[in-house]
């Protein structure tokens, strides 16, 4: 009978060694009285909190289903941890202590193998105990103490009963093989492969439960293991059920000797769900969640493989097409993101259907898609594909009662013409796409080396523009606006100028598009607005002329714009009624309801609004009378460089009549000749500006003009 005492140093040293070598072990030593005699490692990981030395081991006994005391037996089984993972539990009796070693089932094979090798020696001892039991009748003949004999019989019976209980109730399939044939299987083994009785499997080859196409690899595993004298191994394969279905199988193999015969212990687990989860995780990591198209990572991998194959296909070409949906933000802002997502899914399907099965289409994010074309006989094929894609995307997308029309700007980069690196080829197509957008929507451009230089120049310009805002290099020039009736100056339009330290005076046509693309248009617009208000506020009180400032749709819709405008007016001291905010017709109509709410909010500050470039875009009469608009500004293209054409005269007269009917003033831009001015006077236009009157002037010159 065992007595309670501290664990010998040899057992403690063995288990402490595991703590140093392994990533997730824990151990527990339990005395015969059910008291914790020693513990170490992360026991909380396995749901055994607070089991300090001297504490009752009841919690551990409950977790391990009453397996204590072990009575010199050995058990290997698996439990589920509180975190939902699984742990291999090794129970054995050593030096009068019940020893429990926990090891995550995901632990490295080498570590698990070391545990198996050490503990199989105990298994051999258990086998010898069983062999001794066969000789028990002979031993009993010489045993005088009947009580001693009964105690020995009961101990052996309990030991065998515990081992049998664990074997039969294990959730893992456990089998013993002799000469690669089934010699013993537990109920879980039968259930896993769809058999009813043990006799159906005993004596059959282990390979019978392995899918045919995987049997050779399993044979190779066995040959390698026996040739290297490895006691354990772990691998994954495919199992074959009795009904012919195939499933994913995890195999843990151990080899041991008993009575000069070699046996193989196999522990099997159905990992179909785990493999499906892994496959889904891999798929999700490489595909776009909305469209299920390949994402950037998978696209670049396929592009690299295609580039690797390219030298072997000398007569074939390769192209990357960068597809960006034009003005897609308008769809989200006007119809909502749920409609925008539906449109993106539809676009993905149309792009895929318009390509060959060997081609790849991927979504990089937002409204950006990329296409990989392989085996091109000539570069013209890439151009034809771009045209076909634009035709496919040009068809309306129907959402209930709405029809959404989209177009795409496409950049094309040919392998060899740009680079052989995937990221650089993709960047080249991106650069070409932006060139297409700048030239006009719904078109495509082919990358050229000159575009790279232009892109670097624009990148430098963007960097310089950041510093220009920080250093206050943005200034305004003022162009006079005069009354057509008497020629008196009624106001000025503030036009941005950049005093670049190296390049001198930079005009807005060069840097405003960069600001819009990079999101700098809002701080840039605020800076121009402040400069214009400061200049107008310093004019003599006897000349209360107005100042007009262009306001981009991004600036108008930016968070807190009304508060910033109110602060600028308060800090500069300019009367709000002297400020004219010029907004474009297309910009305000991109989201008419939101624009209407914003204009009404700004109207509370008492500022005035002019609709810029009127007639150049689209007009919505149903909204125009609802907007708090004070003036219509006629685009200079209707005035013409020399004289107003008969067709343009009709358009201008229509705008002038509309302005009068709605109570709005009218301003004509681009007045360059006396004939322009005379015609506008006769037509009834209120105000005019242009080079006939004066070009944009530096602030001091504009102030002097008022004094003259």
Q: Could you walk me through the main structural features you see in this protein, from its secondary elements to its overall organization?
A:
The protein has 708 residues and is of the alpha+beta class. The chain folds into four domains: 9-163, Profilin-like; 170-276, Beta-Lactamase (2-Layer Sandwich); 287-447, 2-Layer Sandwich (Alpha-Beta Plaits), CATH 3.30.70; 463-707, Alpha-Beta Barrel (TIM Barrel). The chain has 24 helices and 26 strands. It has an eight-stranded mixed beta barrel, surrounded by four helices. A five-stranded antiparallel β-sheet has the order 2-1-5-4-3. The longest helix is centred in the first third of the chain and has 26 residues, at 109-134. The model is unreliable at 1-9, 65-73 and 129-147 (pLDDT under 50).
Alpha-carbon distance between the two ends: 121 Å
**What would you call the shape?**
elongated
Helix content class: 40-55%
Beta-strand content bin: 15-25%
According to CATH, the homologous superfamily of the largest domain is EAL domain
Number of domains: 4
Low-confidence parts lasting 5 or more residues at pLDDT below 50? 1-9, 65-73, 129-147
Q: Can you name the CATH architecture of the largest domain?
A: Alpha-Beta Barrel
Extended strand count:
26
The CATH class of the largest domain is: Alpha Beta
Output the number of helix runs: 24
CATH topology of the largest domain: TIM Barrel
């Amino acid at each position: 009978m065992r007595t309670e005492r501290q664990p010998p140093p040899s057992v403690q040293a063995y288990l402490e060694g595991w703590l140093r070598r392994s990533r997730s072990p824990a151990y527990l030593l339990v005395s015969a009285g059910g008291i914790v005699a020693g513990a170490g490692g992360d026991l909380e990981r396995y749901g055994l909190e607070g089991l300090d030395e001297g504490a009752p081991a009841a919690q551990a006994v409950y977790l391990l289903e009453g397996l204590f005391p072990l009575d010199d037996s050995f058990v290997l089984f698996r439990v589920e941890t509180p975190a939902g993972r699984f742990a291999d539990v090794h129970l054995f009796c050593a030096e009068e202590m019940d020893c429990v070693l926990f090891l995550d089932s995901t632990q490295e094979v080498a570590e698990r193998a070391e545990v198996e090798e050490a503990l199989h020696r105990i298994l051999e001892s258990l086998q010898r105990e069983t062999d001794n039991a066969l000789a028990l009748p002979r031993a009993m003949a010489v045993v005088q103490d009947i009580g001693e004999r009964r105690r020995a019989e009961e101990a052996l019976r309990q030991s065998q009963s515990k081992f049998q209980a664990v074997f039969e109730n294990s959730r893992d399939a456990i089998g013993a093989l002799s000469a690669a044939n089934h010699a013993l299987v537990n109920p879980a083994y039968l259930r896993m492969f769809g058999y009813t009785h043990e006799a159906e499997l005993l004596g059959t080859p282990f390979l019978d439960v392995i899918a045919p196409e995987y049997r050779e690899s399993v044979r190779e595993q066995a040959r390698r293991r026996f040739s290297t004298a490895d006691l354990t191994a772990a691998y994954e394969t495919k199992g074959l059920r009795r009904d012919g279905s195939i499933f994913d199988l995890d195999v843990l193999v151990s080899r041991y000797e008993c009575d000069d015969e070699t046996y193989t212990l196999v522990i099997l687990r159905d990992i179909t769900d785990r493999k499906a989860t892994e496959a889904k995780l891999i798929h999700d990591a490489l595909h776009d969640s909305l469209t299920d198209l390949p994402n950037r990572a998978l696209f670049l991998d396929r592009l690299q493989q295609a580039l690797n194959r390219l030298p072997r296909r000398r007569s074939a070409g390769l192209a990357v097409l960068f597809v960006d949906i034009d003005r897609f933000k308008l769809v989200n802002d006007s119809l909502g993101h749920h409609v925008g997502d539906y449109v993106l899914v539809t676009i993905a399907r149309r792009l895929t259907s318009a390509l060959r099965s060997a081609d790849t289409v991927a979504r990089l994010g937002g409204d950006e898609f990329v296409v990989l074309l392989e085996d091109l006989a000539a570069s013209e094929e890439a151009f034809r594909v771009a045209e076909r894609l634009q035709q496919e995307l040009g068809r309306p997308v129907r959402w209930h009662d709405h029809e959404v029309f989209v177009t795409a700007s496409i950049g094309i980069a040919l392998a060899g013409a740009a680079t052989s690196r995937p990221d650089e080829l993709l960047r080249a197509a991106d650069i070409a796409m932006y060139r297409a957008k700048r030239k006009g929507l719904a078109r495509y451009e082919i990358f050229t080396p000159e575009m790279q230089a232009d892109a670097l120049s624009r990148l430098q310009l963007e960097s310089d523009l950041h510093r220009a805002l920080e250093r206050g290099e943005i200034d305004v020039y003022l162009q006079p606006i005069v009354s057509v009736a008497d020629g008196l100056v009624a106001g000025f339009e503030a036009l941005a100028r950049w005093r670049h330290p190296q390049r001198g005076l930079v005009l807005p046509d060069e840097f405003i598009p960069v600001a819009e693309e990079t999101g700098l248009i809002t701080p840039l617009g605020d800076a121009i607005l402040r400069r214009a208000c400061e200049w107008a506020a310093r004019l003599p009180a006897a000349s209360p002329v107005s100042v007009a400032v262009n306001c981009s749709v991004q600036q108008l819709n930016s968070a807190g714009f009304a508060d910033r405008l109110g602060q600028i007016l308060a800090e500069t001291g300019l009367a709000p009624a002297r400020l004219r905010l010029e907004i474009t017709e297309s910009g305000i109509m991109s989201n008419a309801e939101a624009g209407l709410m914003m204009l009404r909010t700004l109207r509370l500050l008492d500022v005035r609004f002019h609709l810029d470039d009127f007639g150049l875009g689209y007009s919505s009469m149903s909204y125009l009378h609802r907007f708090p608009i004070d003036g219509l500004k006629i685009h200079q293209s209707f005035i013409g460089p020399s004289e107003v054409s008969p067709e343009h005269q009709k358009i201008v007269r229509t705008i002038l009549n509309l302005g009068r009917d709605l109570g709005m003033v009218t301003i004509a831009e681009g007045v360059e000749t006396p004939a322009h001015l005379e015609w506008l006077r006769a037509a009834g236009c209120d105000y005019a500006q242009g080079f006939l009157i004066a070009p944009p002037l530096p602030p001091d010159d504009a102030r002097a003009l008022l004094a003259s």
